């Protein structure tokens, strides 16, 4: 990984903002990810994220914290928060912005336990593939304190496979339709492509049950997106 995402965050943090990140996926055209969005204030967060923040309690783990916007909000509300990210640039930006506990760590390397685990901005993306879901859920479950909760958002992208008559087309040989290749470029450089998972609620619910977790939809967004709460 070249960490172009982290470089972009660092540029923005260091007042060197000249351009945005360009993203694309195997099923969608190029799109712009504005850097200021990653530094969003509570007021600029979508309702699904505001809802997640309102449900947070106890000691909190912010997985894939990015620029740390959710961590900072919660820390300012008086919560103890740990932010983790696999991007070195993101970790540095969290530190520079004042997140008190930050670690350069992949989710599967985390060993401490928490009352709330947050995975936001398509949190299921971190699982990367449909096949990986059970191992990620098992690990997340092991990080929960008694009474703890996982708050995770995603989108049901089935609508992208619907034709004009409402029919659904999918190449069954290609596996689960929400598994996409994710391309990112910044300042004319291309990142190594990533796998990224969009997961519909029903599939998350089934996977959670197989892992011994309760799963409830706590908020539904306006564009097939949702926030789920999982607990033991
Ligand atoms: C879409 S960004 C979301 C950032 C932030 N949560 C937000 O809402 O602004 C996903 C973040 O997850 C991080 N990430 C990806 N895989 C990860 C993993 N296995 N463990 C921890 N962080 C990961 C990426 O580096 C990136 O910062």
UniProtKB/TrEMBL annotation:
InterPro entries given in the database record: SAM-dependent_MTases_sf
Pfam families (alphabetical): Methyltransf_23
Keyword entries, A-Z: Methyltransferase, Transferase
Keyword Transferase attached: yes
The keyword Heme is annotated on this UniProt entry: no
GO molecular function, one term: methyltransferase activity
Coiled coil: none
An annotated GO BP: methylation
Protein name listed in UniProt: Methyltransferase domain-containing protein
Organism whose genome encodes this protein: Bizionia paragorgiae
Source lineage: Bacteria, Pseudomonadati, Bacteroidota, Flavobacteriia, Flavobacteriales
